[in-house]
Amino acid sequence: MKGQVHSNMSKGTIYPLEDKPKGKCRKWKLQAYNGRDLATGKYKRIYRTVEGTYTQAQKELRLLLGEIEKGKVAKKRCDLFVDYADKWLEQRKLIREHATWSKNVDHVKCAKLHLADARMSEITPQVIETVYRKLLDGESPSGRKLSGTYVECIARTLHKLFSDAIKDGVIAINPCDDAEKPKNDTPERKALPTSSIYELIEKLDPRQPTQLVVLLGIKAGICRAEAHGLSWGDIDGDCIHIRHNFDEGGNLKTTKVKKRTRTLPLTDSVKEDLKAARTHLQALFDRYNKKTMQMLESKGVEIKKSDLLRITDETPVICDGHGNRLLPHASSQWWTRHRSELGFDDWTIHDMRHSYLSELARRKIPIKVLQELAGHEKGSTTMDIYLHANDEDKRKAVAVVDW
């Protein structure tokens, strides 16, 4: 190892960790002083290891000196990333919805792959950028290259993790602040053309709960978690009340955004679908009740009302033949298995909601009305994310000026 590059009690010290000229060295050790120890009278030293050019090492040293000057040097420098991340996820599980927490777990798993031995205080913006780059290149838990969009989601989770670490006194500066994030590279959401919407509706059976989820998306703009959270008490005459989400953890929760709690008018078509679904469910319950009664009678057991199934306001709309609410992935699995034979191989369940809102937009429904139907806090969300111009729209637009 070569000697120090520069040393000064107030400016700190940078040591090269590679036996190379300063211009080619990419590993450095930083040393700074944080006042005197009252017991020994000696200066307290703080060390950090960084990667990058000498200029980047200088920047990291300035950040460290700034922490010291502001009295914000973290006290728990020994924390490993993996240890703090596990504790963070435990706390996160108590306050976040299951779907959000589950995503956090997946994101942290990707980061742990490259930060297994890293101490929280040693993680710099350059280290974070290296993690992003490796995940994009295929060094992921699955061994596949991750999309820029997914790594951007990982970046948001890490930013929150390090922000909480600052509050906990583990670190003083969030390394994600100065790390360049990958760009969103997911193709724009698609919307079905009008003819395809009619074609799909004709192929779906509302008596089957997973297919009813798709129909509620394409006919009423109800998303998957909302459809699985519906109970028969939410359907009131000509309206359907969106009050709950049902997550993959089996939790029925009130909608997390105020605007998502909304009342939607029912079209005649949706009413017919729901009527068919309820009639079919009642038939399943009747079949179950008949078998239950025969079994109890054969054993000489008294039949109680509690032993029989019946549709109440609390009965799920999307449920099995025993009245158990289905998890959202049930409808996703059905769609994934059957979308190819239906002729919609490149489409997702959520594209049905997009298609519904885009169809309303094509029919000149005011943006404020669309916002209310979609349950968005801002009209810009409706415009920027959910509305799409299809090829037919574009042809009509350019035909206006045909020189």
Automatic annotation (TrEMBL):
Q: Which Pfam families match?
A: Phage_integrase
Q: Which Gene3D superfamilies match?
A: 1.10.150.130, Intergrase catalytic core (1.10.443.10)
InterPro entries in UniProt: DNA_brk_join_enz (IPR011010), Integrase-like_cat_sf (IPR013762), Integrase_catalytic (IPR002104), Integrase_recombinase_N (IPR010998), Tyrosine_recombinase_XerCD (IPR050090)
Keywords for this protein = DNA recombination, DNA-binding
- What are the Tyr recombinase domain coordinates in residue numbering? 187-399
Fetch the PANTHER family from UniProt: INTEGRASE_RECOMBINASE PROTEIN MJ0367-RELATED (PTHR30349:SF41), PHAGE INTEGRASE-RELATED (PTHR30349)
Q: Which family does it belong to?
A: Belongs to the 'phage' integrase family.
In its UniProt entry, what is this protein called?
Tyrosine-type recombinase/integrase
